[in-house]
């Protein structure tokens, strides 16, 4: 048996990190566009440093002048546990972009139940069990299978801060390193899109993407590791293929109800005329699959028979435009976008909203009006098509062709099941604060507080938004 450290032999020196590895923030160290550090060394200092013996076996920065030019690439500063020179990537290597949003509207609190809270009072009851929005086709606990739920990951944002923290970003980079199959070394970089200190939105660029023979892009978007990361850190991750068309789009189409506006127009009309219960029953039948969209629309429209045709003018006062919608449309207009609202609602309000937001097109359903009594007949105008799911997708294609815009340069934003076809057809389809089933099936989902979040998906930061709108944009 070999002797361990025989007498007279000095113990080997334990490797230690050099000063250049001791860390400041990973956000600061790897900021993609941070200003170049000043060089305060003379040529004599450089030559003198080169002649000094190595302090240890671990060498991090071969160039004594900081920052090292060989560590900078066109996508940003590389942060990897590997030697960058040992992992050269050929020019034109595909890249993916992950935009990470902290869900500031729904911070996770460690004390979820009264029995573990310091503020518990006598008689307090435990809250009802809930299913996280977007994680299942339904949030109704009674419709979930009777089996033990998967254990939730420990919420970490209450420990490390209600923002995309340094450890959150590091964890995401570690997950990216484990995703490609077979294993590939990745180069990554990132930018903070709202603020450098405690950012809410961070854009991470990485390459090469996972081998599509083992992990397709569609599967990567719904990967279990990324889903768990989102749950742990209370964030949302939007993955896109990096290209000039990701950053430069030219056509944007929007749903109206619960997207550009916070209301559901048919429900507002039902309240106005006192048939709210009947409309709700028809809507529930449609959601249960007993009626398709066209049938449910015609049945609900039938309840409007005899309503004065000017009802839409009276409804304008109760319509609430969604937060960030004006800033979003103003920014896109400044960039030269063509914009349209494609609504399963009604044309008078769609046209009014288009004028309010500066949209170029408005497509919705046309209600028939009795010219004598100036009341609604309870029917749709037969010469105009019903704006259902397939019609929305067709309108997206036709508007793109009319303006000579490739479909890859289009954006679609909606919240309902009838928006899914156009979301999948567009170059970027975003389910905005959508129903749970829609969030599961949509290519991209966002649940922020302001529609200006969509602009970050184009690579625009807070400074860009301020310049486009001419005013301060609230990124809270």
From TrEMBL:
It comes from the Eukaryota. Its EC number is 3.1.3.3. GO terms for cellular component: cytoplasm. InterPro entries: HAD-like_SerB, HAD-like_sf, HAD_sf, PSP. Its cofactor is Mg(2+). The keyword Transmembrane helix does not apply. Keywords: Amino-acid biosynthesis, Hydrolase, Magnesium, Metal-binding, Serine biosynthesis. The keyword Amino-acid biosynthesis applies. GO terms for biological process: L-serine biosynthetic process. The active site is at residues 255, 257. Pathway: Amino-acid biosynthesis; L-serine biosynthesis; L-serine from 3-phospho-D-glycerate: step 3/3. GO terms for molecular function: L-phosphoserine phosphatase activity; magnesium ion binding. Belongs to the HAD-like hydrolase superfamily. SerB family. This is phosphoserine phosphatase. It comes from Aspergillus ruber (strain CBS 135680).
